[in-house]
Amino acid sequence: MLVVLFREKPQPREPLRLSPEYLPIHLPSERHALDQGATPMTVDRLSVAFRLALPEPTQNYEQDAEWCVIDDGSGWRELRFHNYRDIFRVPGLYEKLFHEILMCRSPPVVCHLLVEQLIRDKVDCSKMRVLDVGAGNGMVAEELRKRGIGKVVGLDIIDEAAEAAQRDRPGVYDDYLVVDLTKLGVEEAAEIVSDGFHALITVGALGFGDIPPEAFQVALDMICNDGLIAFTIRDDFLSENETSGFAALIRTLITAGGLKELRQVTYQHRLATTRQPVHYRAIVARKG
Ligand SMILES: C[S@@+](CC[C@H](N)C(=O)[O-])C[C@H]1O[C@@H](n2cnc3c(N)ncnc32)[C@H](O)[C@@H]1O
């Protein structure tokens, strides 16, 4: 049984805002700061030409098995949420599904934390070069630009992400590379780094068959010493007994001095199709 959730033509509506239930749950004192980071996203201006439906909330799926059905003129078809190729091919679908219906807040939350740290460090944001890994269709770059970041280079493993970023947010990236970080040669890596990056950001892209720990390590190596790292990861991926390898990598980096943690916030990343909250951690650290 399916529940059709929205109409073919979008109606004018209020911009998305962080409501109390989407605030970090461990650090209530940060409410004011994160609220300031909540500005309307491109989701408010993209028009849609499709119908979309989600499973009944009573049906429970693992995060990497969640799905929707979409009709963009050629009949209904099922799409897995992690089928980013097909999702990015449909203009506005990613925004409608994740940001409007499932209320994803990760890009503004993490970008706000990163920029807040830069301001604390008294850094001129307009001179910053940020590498956005798992960049997707550019929502993170859009949030960084809004906050005054001078240069953003996107990196993703699929062409469809680069094409969607160019189609929906032209100009937010200075450069966009379609690369598999686990297969990068030394020369290619040096070429990407060229003038050096001051910060790495990766939002909603670690684990679940997306960016593996070894690719994250390659991305870390592209950032200059003392540079900032801002990333999100699902809460339980950092627990003692998780098997993805991220907990071990992050622990090793922190204990060996490769990363110094500056902020860690647990927040509501989005809703699951059950409409229950999915909690992620946003971490800001300095490279040692
Ligand atoms: C949930 S999307 C997040 C996109 C964007 N960061 C955002 O927050 O809107 C995950 C992105 O990670 C990308 N991705 C998955 N595996 C990857 C890999 N090994 N290297 C680079 N990008 C990858 C996917 O193609 C997809 O664009």
Question: Could you describe the 3D structure shown?
Answer:
- This protein has nine helices and eleven strands.
- It is α/β, with parallel strands linked by helices and 288 residues long.
- Strand 6, helix 6 and strand 7 form a beta-alpha-beta unit.
- It has two domains: 51 residues, no CATH class; 183 residues, Rossmann fold (3-Layer(aba) Sandwich), CATH 3.40.50.150.
- The chain is globular, with a radius of gyration of 18 Å.
- It starts with a strand and ends with a strand.
- Helix 4 runs parallel beside helix 5.
- The site of S-adenosylmethionine has 20 residues, from helix 4 and helix 5.
- This is Methyltransferase domain-containing protein.
- InterPro entries: Methyltransf_25, SAM-dependent_MTases_sf.
Report the principal-axis shape: globular
Counted up, domains total 2
Describe the strand arrangement of the main beta sheet, using strand numbers: 7-6-5-8-9-11-10
Largest sheet properties: 7 strands, mixed
Q: What is the CATH-assigned architecture of the largest domain? A: 3-Layer(aba) Sandwich
Order of helices and strands: EHEEEHHHEHEHEHEHEHEE
* Cofactors, ions, other ligands: S-adenosylmethionine
Which helices and strands appear, and what pairs or packs with what?
Layout lengths: L1 E3 L26 H6 L14 E5 L11 E5 L4 E5 L3 H6 L3 H9 L4 H15 L8 E5 L5 H8 L4 E6 L2 H10 L6 E4 L7 H8 L3 E6 L10 H9 L1 E12 L11 H10 L3 E13 L5 E11 L1
Helix pairs in contact: 4-5
This protein binds S-adenosylmethionine.
Protein name: Methyltransferase domain-containing protein
InterPro entries: Methyltransf_25, SAM-dependent_MTases_sf
Pfam families: Methyltransf_25
